[in-house]
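Convert to structure. Protein one:
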Amino acid sequence: MEIKNGRKAIYKGKEYRVLRIKGDKTKVELISHDEEDLVENGFELVYNERTKLPEIGIYSKIVPLEEIENAYSLRTIIWYKGRDFYIHNEAENGYFRVFGSWEFQKKHNLEIISVDGPNDLTLKIPKAEVEKVELEKEGILGFEVSEDERLMEIELD
């Protein structure tokens, strides 16, 4: 199962990570990890601001908003013990990393990965105990998502 989180845009039929450009509501920056985009779609290498060296495997392109076919925000959600959690990412084999609370951690005796704030924890949840997985999709940048696309159940492998 692929965990999909973040802001995405469809450009020339392909999904990219999308970033707003500060102070410009007419353009967006697309991020790719596909080297073919350098030649085929006019992307450029991303340079590290501190070292001024290229970031290996990261490419970007500034495009006018009207060239974007669709844009949306994605969040992968798991259901565990009757409660929903946004998946941070996959931890080692057989576990998900999620954000939770001290109360939930104590009640279900979950392993703490990190303490992120006074009542914010990153917890390990066993995949085998997950009740279901859903993908939440919400339109961004003026784009809409149809009702049947807003929340889709996905297979857990």
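Protein two, convert as well:
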Amino acid sequence: MVDIDEWPAIDQGWAMRYRLAMTGKCVPALSLAEREQDLLDAIREAGMPAAELFGDAKTLATEDAAELATTDETVRTSMGGGLKPALRELAGTWVGIGAVAVLIMVLRHGWSVDLDASHVLVAASVAAAFLGWNVGRALFTAGRSGSAIGALIAVGTVVVAGIASAANLGPGHMAASDVSVLLLAPVILGPGIVVLLVLSRMPQHDLRSTWDDGAWLRRFRGGLRSRLMPSKTARGHVAEVEQALEWAGTTAYTEFGHPLSFARELAAADRATRARQRWAVTTVSTGGPLLMAALILTNQSWGMLTVPIAVGFVLSAVVAFSVGWRDQPRMMKR
């Protein structure tokens, strides 16, 4: 990537806006660096400010991303693309859960809290459920549906055991008394923050490029399944690939590229799959906030803020459903 100091001083702000707008757009780093160099060369040749020559940085970035983004980069940076994105999701979830837990403690108990052993078990079980869901989702996205199911079953067992243990133990068993929330917060949030900081310095590995045909086909099937493609359509694509390989005499990777990338491209071209994906997103984004609102109202976790926060979750569910319903015709026409 072009060093920001190489840009003319008048254009450095524009370049930063362009770079920020390209963040998360699934454009390979090499392609982005080449594009920035082209822009810089054009500015030097024209002798004009970037804003005058190219217009709004965000608009240009959107246009460039549509042209330069690749499916391989999308897979590489997705949860199923390797250890780094999966760990980033897990660490972010941990920090989010920890922040909510700290806020609840402050609202309900002030700046010092007694740690009931049964409450700690329940909290740990809830955290395990969220983290386990992310692990299962990462494996499923990576095309490892069998491993995903196994992970979810294992986590479900741990969660049920933790909640059952808390119920058997009952309230009144103090693990610690009069603990300062200011001391407890770093203990809760620290691991997630440390992992995020380490990940920020960890390079993202390239996609795997060595496959035997058996492993490639298994991951390809899993990739189609993870994109929610109807089973009949998926079997048809697998049969077509197997037939093509018989005629081509080459490996599946040589012929079709990475199995998850190829699966994504096929899924994106299938109308029924897109409809399934849209309904799945709408269901999760609607049901999740409604479930959270019900839990908040049931447990009265937020004191005086319980009702307003629950109403906020309900409103977010309504908005998510409205957006999903509105976008459905557009998705079906693509």
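The longest strand covers residues 174-180. The two ends are 34 Å apart (CA to CA).
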